[in-house]
Amino acid sequence: MLGSIEEGRAVLRYAGCDQCIPPKTAPEPLDLPIRRVSPSVILLGSVSYSREAEPYPKHCPSGV
Known about the structure:
mainly beta
């Protein structure tokens, strides 16, 4: 992460998943802007994440 959570950039890289079929080649890293929009919400690219949102169940959200 470059900058700060208030306003910066985050580089996300594929790390793998024990539950999913891995791609033949790793996807390119994503370089996304990150910004805190409230004490419990951040905006990563065009997606907002809230601490108050319900987490996924204990299995992969893709259903695999």
